[in-house]
Amino acid sequence: MGQIEWAMWANEQALASGLILVMGGIVATAGQFTKWYFGAYSIGAGVFVCLLEYPRGKRRKGSTMERCGQKYMTRVVKVFGPLTRNYYVRAFLHLALSVPAGFLLATILGTACLAIASCIYLLAAFRGEQWVPIEPKPKERPQVGGTIKQPPSNPPPRPPAEARKKPSEGEAAGAAGVSGGPQENPVPVIDEVV
Amino acid sequence: MGNWIENEGLSIFVVLVWLGLNVFLFIKFYDVYNHKPRYMYSQKLLGFALPLARAPAACLNFNCMLILLPVCRNLLSFLRGSSACCSTRIRRQLDRNLTFHKMVAWMIALHTAIHTIAHLFNVEWCVNARVNSSDNLSVALSNLEDKPGETYLNFARAKIPNPEGGLYVAVTRLAGITGIVITLCLILIITSSTKTIRRSYFEVFWYTHHLFVIFFIGLAIHGAEKIVRGQTAESLKVHNPEICGKDPSAWGKPEGCPIPQFSGNPPMTWKWIVAPMFLYLCERLVRFWRSQQKVVITKVVTHPFKTIELQMKKKGFKMEVGQYIFVKCPKVSRLEWHPFTLTSAPEEDFFSIHIRIVGDWTEGLFNACGCDKQEFQDAWKLPKIAVDGPFGTASEDVFSYEVVMLVGAGIGVTPFASILKSVWYKYCNNATNLRLKKIYFYWLCRDTHAFEWFADLLQLLETQMQERNNAGFLSYNIYLTGWDESQADHFAVHHDEEKDVITGLKQKTLYGRPNWDNEFKTIAGQHPNTRIGVFLCGPEALAETLSKQCISNSESGPRGVHFIFNKENF
């Protein structure tokens, strides 16, 4: 499976684990089970994992579908630099986070899922994958007038065609001659282009 | 206002019936465990968590039975074929099998969540009752079977307090172990089935999905230990829970009630799932048997831009237009089956598929067929191929309409290659009995790369139609959606030439996306009072657009123009 980016699957799995941790934690806390504070921890850990995993990383090949509204979290996750870029760090972080939730039956499923996500991240890290943020490409503003080397030599308003006839035809061109050089307009021109 | 019922009615009906059955089962079983005298003591011990766990369990039985059926493709093909007498509408329903499969999967996930949460409460309360940190009645009920001659109600037999007690129950009871294992399998299946993973890393999806085998086996034995307990009928005759429950300390004593006896409910799930499991097993056996049949690659053609065409022959292979097959190449991977649409017409003596090289398996196939080598390859060097199918798709119905609109986006044009070729053959054979009178073909493409192999076919058709003086039979529109500034100049300059600068075809390439509203209205105007089939193979967004257009441009009432939308998907 040479071309698979394991991090993509690890990401889905970790996100799901976060949600399961939150659900299990709510059950334990709301039901006031024995040692329910593990459940409270689980909610916190679950929310953290969800936030960390929500922004999808950029795929190496092809285009990546962003999750709805992920750009806000992308900025936050990017700030941590190598801590979030490196998948070894993520793998061990997830493994560590999953351990305390293993003490309660309500949250043990979250532990198992997060541990699996951790293993897949480890595999991804081993294969040299990295989390790269998806950033919007800066829109290239078209250079106005960039390709215009010389301004037009006969800008409007132009006098009627007879007045524009070439000097070789020997007609009275008047002050509106077209023998090169800027046009002298009979009426002052106000440039209205903003 | 369009005729929404025409397009969606039967699907909505099926979904409503399915949802209705789910709701019915939920309420029915909730009620049984809430009110039946047999479960009165169970309810005292477990509270609302007992019926709340049993109700989704019933729904799970129902949905796990259903989930295997939409993927029995051979069965569905058989039903499609045999329902040739039935209307196109029924057959269109069978094309939505994958959508149904996904809906049922989500329902299973939902019910699993409710079931698990309810059982978490169950376990917590049972263990608490066992270690005496609960009310008198619960404690008394939990102590049953401590003495010989008693039958237990509380499945937590060891006196270990929470939370270790709960964990202990989960790993020592069959229901606990199987529950955790199959829920994990379900979660892994779901996370590897998301669109990103499915479209880009098909192998991960394919292999992980096979965890369903463990899921079903675990599901079948999940209830084997019979820990859902209720009072036995004989015990109910002599021990009335309402009266005797008031004084548990007097049980077994001469002045009080006799000790209540309990029995476990036998597992029910296997009764629901055994038939679909058998059907699916048959399905895979059919696939295996088919894979053993000899398939010969007669020709391999490399097309530009990472597309190859495989032409094959297999004894007894019969296909219809636009069907797809599953292909396995043991040399590349011994286990993987990949789906491809057939691009040849039924009238040809071979069948072909066009494959884009995008992933591991396709790249492996590319190399195995010797496409990376320049020199001519001997036939015996070509790899062995196994083929399963062909399986029916919506495209088969093309010929039952008078007028059709075919829309293919990018590589989604492949089923239409088959249709157009078949059209050509039928025309050649002078089939004036052909019901199909007019085809509007739209090909949306990002760039010119994909044109190559398809342009030849269109050129052929163009010539053919001109020779037969029926240039109007096929009206095709090619839309180049990925043009840029530099190309635009080129197009503008060559606009007036006779043949199109990109394709060499007489009909010009158009740029940007089609204005569907215009297209539909024009076609509706040209063909009043007809049923027009709209066939799409392309992305979801386009499907939404076309679906809406079909609905809004169809007239209500049986007379008038009707657009029927058919979508092809894997």
Helix share of residues of chain B?
40-55%
* Largest sheet properties of chain A: none
* Quaternary state of the chains: heterodimer
Order of helices and strands of chain A: HHHHHH
Please describe what this structure looks like.
- Chain A is mainly α and 194 residues long.
- Chain A has a domain at 6-126.
- Chain A is 46% helix and 0% strand.
- Chain A contains 6 helices and no strands.
- Chain A has helices spanning 6-30, 37-53, 71-79, 82-85, 87-98, 105-126.
- In chain A, helix 1 packs antiparallel against helix 2 (37-53), helix 1 runs antiparallel to helix 6 (105-126) and helix 5 packs antiparallel against helix 6.
- The two termini of chain A are 57 Å apart.
- The mean pLDDT of chain B is 83.
- Chain B is of the alpha/beta class.
- Chain B has 3 domains: 1-80 and 87-173 and 225-287, no CATH class; 293-373 and 381-391, Elongation Factor Tu (Ef-tu), domain 3, CATH 2.40.30; 394-451 and 458-484 and 495-567, Rossmann fold, CATH 3.40.50.
- In chain B, helix 3 packs parallel to helix 15 (269-292) and helix 12 runs antiparallel to helix 15 (269-292).
- Chain B is 48% helix and 14% strand.
- Chain A binds chain B through residues 1-5, 8-9, 12-13, 15-16, 20, 23-24, 27-28, 31, 33-35, 38, 56, 59, 62, 65, 103-106, 108-109, 112-113, 116, and chain B through 113, 116-117, 120-121, 123-124, 128, 161-163, 166-167, 169-170, 180, 183-184, 187-188, 190-192, 194-197, 200-201, 203-204, 359-360, 363.
Q: Brief overview, please?
A:
Chain B: This is NADPH oxidase 2. The complex is a heterodimer of chains A (194) and B (570). Chain A is mostly helical and 194 residues long.
